[in-house]
Design goal:
inorganic pyrophosphatase (n-terminal core), 36% helix, six-stranded parallel sheet
């Protein structure tokens, strides 16, 4: 698919050009958090809702963006979303919500997927977030400041991300 090839080229370019300051601040001092994930099933959606609720209870302003693949249901319509229809032939994301999300200078940006996708790699390369956190993938260290290696369930990954982020000082 040409779109994805162009997107990968744009992503590599963004990784080199993005001069955003990358550094973590103590979790207790953080104010804004971004969350991105791919819609898969109701269980994952509920676990992410609970994760977001914990962050909000900690006094964080949380903004969520989900990728909605074909044939998947948008549960609850709680969060902003984008689809493959928002990727043009030249590999540009045309969703204003996704673009505005990437332009936010979040203190932390959590990528809550167990697998990587070119669309989220692009957003991670483009984002102005100070500290990007996600699941450990050896070949993707350029996209994150902190990666969590978790071999357990998705819930265990969320718990580990929350635990280690709260320990940042």
């Amino acid at each position: 698919m040409f779109k994805l090839n162009f997107l990968r080229l744009r992503t590599n370019s963004l990784l080199k050009k993005n001069k955003s300051i990358r550094a973590s601040i103590p979790y207790a001092q953080s104010k804004s958090i971004g969350v991105i994930f791919t819609v898969e099933d109701r269980k994952k959606h509920e676990e992410i809702k609970e994760f977001v609720k914990h962050l909000e209870q900690d006094g964080k302003m949380v903004r969520v963006l989900e990728f909605l693949p074909k044939e998947k249901e948008n549960y609850d319509f709680l969060y902003s979303f984008f689809t493959l229809k928002h990727l043009n032939f030249w590999g540009n994301i045309t969703s204003s919500e996704a673009i505005q999300f990437a332009d936010q200078p979040f203190d932390y940006l959590f990528h809550l997927d167990t697998a990587s996708t070119p669309l989220f790699q692009h957003l991670l390369a483009r984002t102005k977030a100070h500290c990007r956190i996600g699941k450990f993938r050896e070949s993707e260290d350029a996209f994150y400041e902190l990666m969590i290696d978790c071999k357990g369930s998705f819930k265990e990954l969320l718990d580990s991300i929350y635990k280690y982020t709260k320990e940042l000082r």
